[in-house]
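Recall the central idea of this unit: under ordinary conditions, the amino acid sequence of a chain determines the structure it adopts. In this exercise we apply that idea directly, starting from the sequence alone.
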Amino acid sequence: MDRTQVPSGPTSRMARFQAALQERGARAALICAPRHIHYLTGHVPAGRSPAFVLARIGEQPLLVLGDSEAEAARAATADIAVAPYEDYSIHRVVLRRREAAQALAQAVARYHLGKDGPVAIEAEDLPAFAAPHVAGLDVVDIAPALRALRACKDPDEQDKIRRAVAVTNAGHAAAREAAAPGAAEMQVYAAIQRACVLEAGEPIAFDGDFLSGERTVLMGGAPTDRVLREGDLFICDLFPTVADYWADTTRTFAVGAASAAQRELYEVVRGALERGRRAVRPGALASEVYHEMRAAIAEAGHADRFPHHGGHGIGLEPHESPWIIPGDDTALRPGMTMTLEPGVYLEGVGGVRLEDNYIITRDGADVIPPYPLGLDGQPPGAGATSPSEADKW
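Accordingly, the structure predicted from this sequence is:
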């Protein structure tokens, strides 16, 4: 089915989740991971106080969280009951985990958790405060089912990822402008961070790789006080999260004019990226896409210089299924969102990595509008956040 025809939003996702419970013989679930609370309710937990959801087939789900988040939660969760507990007071010392544990005990009693069959939990995410409340119950691990549900993104999720990609585009524009001889990596990083936050219009979680010159062969790392020199390569790998959804894009720039060897290396990686994109289609295996990119690099004589994964899924986590590696035989499906990121790293020349984000459709890979590809100088329309006709695939 075309994902644009799939009911979108947390209400629809909660209904699909309850169907998954039933398939696994569970009548109720205790959900504690913030990313899954967001996925199923629409509320993004602030992280200051524990939150959890109790869901039972045929009943209204209950979201329990600190009262400092109650107003935002009610605005985001019209179909879900909100039960706040006190998480701040000027009249007494509030121990938030203890308050959360007491609220959980009340919710468990209200829902008679475990009385009519197994309880679904996320075994890998169950926090210590919640563990005593499921001890002795018949539990089933719902985490694999949640990962399967999350693999194909609803249209509202795709829109959030597109917004996050737009933030990376602003960051790459700032990087290209700032990556000049005499600038330190940390100065370039500061310009990127400022551009990303301003594009997002709100504080965001932000990370990445920021490497120049001989450091580019390290593949990844935080910025340092190293000063950029004429002829350096600069790897800028940005992965911000906007509205709790991640994007992940990489561009490699030349500081000044690129050498012939750098241009040759860049074209090898660019060709591998394109070959990977052509391999992405419904039914293709993640491992097959990896091997296509690796073959392109091997044919250029650099098989041993592509040491990392060739991409990964993106969504509520920066790295999730599918994994573009030799060991993942996941079949690609419409609605999956993923990256491709081939790279080659050559001592004496530098490292080159390129990465775009894609939505898998019935026809192949739909690239989310990226920052223009290009190694030298300012791109067409410096500061633009979408590719020119000349730079599109």
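The chain has two domains: 3-151, 155-391.
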